[in-house]
TrEMBL record:
Biological source species: Nothobranchius furzeri (Turquoise killifish)
The keyword Calcium is assigned to this record: no
Subunit structure: Part of the heparan sulfate polymerase, a dimeric complex composed of EXT1 and EXT2. Could also form homooligomeric complexes. Interacts with NDST1. Interacts with GALNT5.
Name of this protein: Exostosin-2
Parts of the chain that traverse the membrane: 24-46
Purpose of the protein: Glycosyltransferase forming with EXT1 the heterodimeric heparan sulfate polymerase which catalyzes the elongation of the heparan sulfate glycan backbone. Glycan backbone extension consists in the alternating transfer of (1->4)-beta-D-GlcA and (1->4)-alpha-D-GlcNAc residues from their respective UDP-sugar donors.
Substrates-to-products reaction catalysed: 3-O-{[(1->4)-beta-D-GlcA-(1->4)-alpha-D-GlcNAc](n)-(1->4)-beta-D-GlcA-(1->3)-beta-D-Gal-(1->3)-beta-D-Gal-(1->4)-beta-D-Xyl}-L-seryl-[protein] + UDP-N-acetyl-alpha-D-glucosamine = 3-O-{alpha-D-GlcNAc-[(1->4)-beta-D-GlcA-(1->4)-alpha-D-GlcNAc](n)-(1->4)-beta-D-GlcA-(1->3)-beta-D-Gal-(1->3)-beta-D-Gal-(1->4)-beta-D-Xyl}-L-seryl-[protein] + UDP + H(+)
Amino acid sequence: MCAAGKYSSRGPALIPRMKTKHRIYYITLFTVVLLGLIATGMFQFWPHSIESTAEWTLEKGSVHDAPLIRLPVSSPIPERGDLSCRMHTCFDVYRCGYNPKNRIKVYIYPLQRFVDELGVPISSTGLSREYNELLSSISDSDFYTDDVTRACLFIPSIDVLNQNSLRIRETAQALAVLPRWDKGMNHLLFNMLPGGPPDYNTALDVPRDRALLAGGGFSTWTYRQGYDVSIPVYSPLSADVVLSERQPGPRHYFILSSQTAIHREYRAELERLKEENGEALLLLDKCSNLSQGAAIARKRCYKGQVYEYPEVLQESSFCVVLRGARLGQAALSDVLQAGCVPVILADSYILPFSEVLDWKRASVVIPEEKLSEMYTILKSIPHRQVEEMQRQARWFWEAYFSSMKAIGLTTLQIINDRIYPYAARTYEQWNNPPVVKWSSVNSPLFLPLIPPRAPGFTAVVLTYDRVESLFRVITEISKVPSLAKLLVVWNNQNKSPPEESLWPKVGIPLKVVRTKENKLSNRFFPYDEIETEAVLAIDDDIIMLTSDELQFGYEVWREFPDRLVGYPGRLHLWDHEMGKWKYESEWTNEVSMVLTGAAFYHKYFNYLYTYKMPGDIKNWVDAHMNCEDIAMNFLVANITGKAPIKVTPRKKFKCPECTAIDGLSLDQTHMVERSECINKFATVFGTMPLKVVEHRADPVLYKDDFPEKLKSFPNIGSL
């Protein structure tokens, strides 16, 4: 007890003494640990580099607020530039890494003012409005990052768009002192006006090591294919002048030349062409009788008559773009904006964005030595092709030339496609204007379809009262191996269909559906009886198609389930005299429609036709009892952006027993109304979605001298 009491009596006295003795020590230790944790956290989340805190914004576009960097005379100078550079030799793709969005990250250096030892700037103009717009648009895009450690591509804030304003040596020194320069690896420079007098080099003269160059005047000698990017020379008029889009077609002039500083030999040749072809060619020059000023840049003259530029470009079908002192010319952008087809005469010129753009669709490139033959060459181009080129030229300008933003982001997208080729844009995405869409529906290839409950196709036969012809059609169709069901749409409310015992005996299900009203649109109603994905729409008088022709048509549809695949082909044409579209049923080398009197299509289009047809087209068709097939062609082409497919060579589909009273297509009034349909539908859709093609699908070995029994489809039939 005494021992216990002795311990107890000492315990309370020992503890306070220990706290007093070590209190300062524990408090100091705790404080050090706490400060260490705070410092670790700050280091973890604080930017790891001074560069990463300098986010590019439009407000930092003021040169006066930028820090001043003085370049000693002894500052290093980059090498001239390696012409052998390619993406696999001079670009470090590992910096880009993998990211779920397959998009490169671009870092823009903070704005700085570079001067030499005497305080003289490296550029006479500083940061131009165009370059400021370019950098600002990139900083607002999904490509931009303000974290230098994540960057794949680096863009200096040093403006080298116009070499005329640069001090070559000092600009090169400024590039070399950039923190991440590393001999230009993964750096991108934008230049539109390269070279200088007297030789005007076609690439930027500033030494730049391995940096990529987005240049506006490359020739085949200076362009590093697959590494550099050829860009357009931006036209300041793009921001100052708004030219409304003009309908493609013939213009007042056939050829127009509007450049003012072209070589005297070229001008002499153009004047000779003018003498030979008269008013078809307009040859403009600068206006010598007007006072100098900013407005004179927008004037052109011919024999004292003054024309507004670039508005006058819209008055010509073709516009000449000749090389000047530099290969790249801002006139190309003006011509495209006007929807005028550029005729480019600049040997060895690398056209802007030619890595991805198909310039054959929007321009005519003629060797300089053939300038004298220009008129003859252009006259040989069909009118329809000229119209397509006019439309494509305007779209090229809108998508890729219209602003510094468009030029900059297109350049980055091209580089992005090189680095992530598996996610690159397709040829169609680069070159096909976007289809005007009235809903969010896409091609059936990308729709979540329910697997079909039955293979093959369903034949939907629209009929009124031609019973004998109907029975013959049913008998012939039933011979097709892939036929799954026959659906007869009885469109006569005043007469009942024949008794069941009178119908042909066929080995597949046959269903008759009676409609409440006599409408042509009934053939495209999404009936529950249609269980297959493939539908064959066929008229009750199409008795000439053989089972081989029908089976082959179905096999073609299986390869192209988002297309209309049919037999009777038709064409739409632009009537220049009347200024509107025209329906053509004569035999031609082109097809833009297949009639649904005999055509395969995906059943999903029945739903779109019935419930999603734009405007009043469906009601108009029912009221006029015409053009339901044209409406379906418009619908499918507008949704998919693709042309129909004509199969087999057959062109004659006239019913032998039908008279002019029975056959609607024999009525001249009917043909006129078909043209009216095309014009109305084009107005409602807001575009002309129909695509013209010059091919059809025939079976392999169809025309070969080969035993018939070895051919898959021997009985294709004649014309």
